[in-house]
Amino acid sequence: MSEPTDTTEDDVSSDELLPWLEFGCWTALVLAPILYYVNGPSVSSDQAVVRTGLVVLAAVGAIALRVVNWRRGSS
Description:
Layout: H1 14-39, H2 45-74
Helix pairs in contact: 1-2
């Protein structure tokens, strides 16, 4: 009979997740002007609202997560 193998859980802690979320927000913010250049200007007001919302959401998320990660790292 074979011995049971030890299993390790692959849970991701908030200490590992928050820096990656911040990286994703900064990446989205940096890529937004490049994608605007490639795709051209908005063709409808709906598209303009969605693009603006995504940029604002990425900026707010990046700044908020930078502050959170900075505060968590300094304590």
